[in-house]
Amino acid sequence: MKLCKTIADLKVEISSAKASGKTIGLVPTMGALHEGHASLIGAAASENDITVVSIFVNPTQFGEGEDLDSYPRTLDADCKLAEGMGADIVFAPTAKEMYPSEDMTWVEVTGDITKVLCGRSRPIHFRGVTTVVSKLFNLAEPTRAYFGQKDAQQVQVLKRMVKDLFFNLEMRIMPIVREADGLAKSSRNTYLSPAERQAALILSQSLKKAEEAFNGGEKASSKLVEIVEAHLKTEPMSDIDYVELLQLPDLTVAETEIKKPHLLAMAVRIGSTRLIDNIILG
Amino acid sequence: MKLCKTIADLKVEISSAKASGKTIGLVPTMGALHEGHASLIGAAASENDITVVSIFVNPTQFGEGEDLDSYPRTLDADCKLAEGMGADIVFAPTAKEMYPSEDMTWVEVTGDITKVLCGRSRPIHFRGVTTVVSKLFNLAEPTRAYFGQKDAQQVQVLKRMVKDLFFNLEMRIMPIVREADGLAKSSRNTYLSPAERQAALILSQSLKKAEEAFNGGEKASSKLVEIVEAHLKTEPMSDIDYVELLQLPDLTVAETEIKKPHLLAMAVRIGSTRLIDNIILG
After folding, report:
1. Mean pLDDT calculated for residue range A267-280
2. B220: number of Cβ within 10 Å
3. The pLDDT value given to residue A126
4. What pLDDT, on a 0 to 100 scale, did the predictor assign at position B46?
5. pTM of the entire predicted model
6. Catalytic: which of B34, B37, B125, B262?
7. Three-state DSSP class for residue A50
8. Helices (H), chain A
9. Which residues have CB under 8 Å from A184's CB, separation 6+?
């Protein structure tokens, strides 16, 4: 496996792969890789000739007071995991290389799709995500790009960007990977104390409650949200940022009675750690 | 030559060209093709295996009260000119196809580079240009893209976008093509009455005055701007929007004494038609 720390290094690899007609799978990450990322890398390696894993803690998607500085950085371990899952290239550039100009060139999806859910409390987040992913798409020229359903809103925003700007690639969305007890895998789980780790189970448990109610015949969107909120509140350490049920793919207001696919998504603080989780209903 | 009126049609052509390893030259235009465009198409045809000319009057780069509705549309004549210059494909999509979502995904270069010159009176113009050109780049996947130096600020903004977002292509900038009497070729010249057409010579003449002064030893930026403004004002039909001298490539404030390359650019109304012209000094 090759570690490319500069854009120039990556370009050599990509143009050689392209020249020989190879397919390229790109897995954009911020590092601190866990089994969720491993599933993306494994899928990319099985579906493409060349698998590129980018590792870049992207400053433009962090707001004031967020965890940019404390976000875990574990490049050596990440390279081992990536190589073990079949990656051919790890691309780990500096912020200076990824943002060469003092003034930014932004790629921004507008409308409700970026304003609901995490967009309410993180107003600049998705602009940072779409900007950096555009750069990575242009650098790695992937045949397929891999993202986790864990970041459900990111998935919909990036799909919209790909559709609107006509990026010539296939978006491959992989299921959420969970711990044995149901907690969705996240690089931010490392922030949790043992007591918080236990309390964090309330997220997946409350989604399960909603799923059971839905499968048992409850189709009223307001009722389903109530079920989730009520269950989250049974955990004293939980502090709800949002629980929202929205139509897919555009994250518009839910139907009163759910018939088409909807996203049920939440962000909940456990102590000072903000966690997200979701399921699709319908 | 093939006329592609849909994205699906274009994609068939591009993927076939890519699969056989052909180089692609893209000439993005708004149609109403003249000899300036012809020089771009000719250059593209001589440097690439396949030449794509896009013809799309892009609504998002026109502001309120600008000439979106009256902009000349001459597709049949454009196709003839393009074919005569060696184009292989004319891509003439609808606005609905180019903008598939109700909410926009914007590509926007920020900072002074989009705020000076035409950016002062056309605040949304360059956001529309960078957005549509990004789409065209992703659709046509060009090896080289061709633009005219006539739109000097557009050239610098697009170069910045290509640099910041890492589009994998070469920007080819072609010199301004002028009428025998010096008027820069423009699709908007068709708006001019015979008297206005004569008055419009004041633009290129005043740039020539500045160039003569510069070559004669005048290096003071304020003085060079004064020479141009004074000459423009000798024409009663001229109404200056701006005359600016700025450093290349980032369009920052001019040096007091010009040593490095600077752009001397102007926008001037002749009657109700707004014309632009420029030269590079230094």
Report:
1. 97
2. 15
3. 98
4. 98
5. 0.96
6. B37
7. strand
8. 7-19, 35-47, 75-84, 95-98, 118-121, 125-140, 152-165, 194-199, 201-215, 221-233
9. A36, A150, A176, A177, A178, A203, A204, A275, A276, A277
Domains of chain A: 2-174 (3.40.50.620), 187-281 (3.30.1300.10)
For β-strands B238-247 and B262-270, DSSP reports them as antiparallel
Instruction: Please report, as a single letter, which amino acid is at residue A280.
Output: I
Average pLDDT along chain A? 97
- To the nearest whole Å, the CA of A97 is away from the closest chain B CA by 9
CA dist., res. A90 & res. A228, Å (int): 39
Edge-first strand listing for the sheet containing B2-4: B2-4, B89-91, B50-55, B24-29, B144-148, B170-174
**Using an 8 Å Cβ cutoff, are B92 and B99 in contact?**
no
pLDDT at B156: 98
Across residues A163-172, what is the average pLDDT? 98
A positions 53-72 inside 8 Å of B (CB): none
Asked if B193 contacts B263 with a C-beta cutoff of 8 angstroms, the reply is no
- The residue ranges of chain B whose pLDDT is under 50 are none
CA A146 to chain centroid:
10
Please state, in angstroms and as integers, the Cα–Cα distance from residue A200 to each residue in A182, A193, A264, following that order: 10, 10, 17
**What's the CA gap between A188 and A59, in Å, rounded?**
16
Q: How far apart are the first and last CA of chain B?
A: 42
B-chain CB neighbours of A102 within 8 Å are 111
pLDDT of residue B68: 96
**Interchain CB distance below 8 Å, A166 and B107:** no
Rounded distance, CA A132 to CA A137, Å? 9
Measure the CA–CA gap between A278 and A152, rounded to whole angstroms.
7
Instruction: Measure Cα distances from A107 to A104, B3, B168 in Å.
Output: 10, 30, 17
Give me the phi and psi of B217, to 5 degrees please.
115, -5
User: Nearest-CA neighbor of A146 among A235, A233, A29, A253?
Assistant: A29
User: Taken in order A227, A233, A235, A241, is the CA torsion positive or negative?
Assistant: positive
Query: Is any Cβ of chain A less than 8 angstroms from the Cβ of B106?
Result: yes
Determine the distance in angstroms separating the CA of B81 from the nearest CA of chain A, rounded to an integer. 28
The answer to whether B37 is a known catalytic residue is: yes
Task: For A162-230, give the DSSP string.
Answer: HHHHT-SSEEEEEPPPB-TTSPBP-GGGGG--HHHHHHTHHHHHHHHHHHHHHHTT--BHHHHHHHHHH
Two structure tokens written together for A209? 């409650």
Catalytic center residues of A: 37
Q: What CA–CA distance (Å, rounded) separates B269 from B229?
A: 13
CB-CB contact of A223 with A255 (8 Å): no
Angle of CA points B242, B246, B247, to nearest 5°:
165
List the one residue out of B209, B165, B188 whose CA is nearest residue B67.
B188
Residues B99, A138: C-beta atoms closer than 8 Å: no
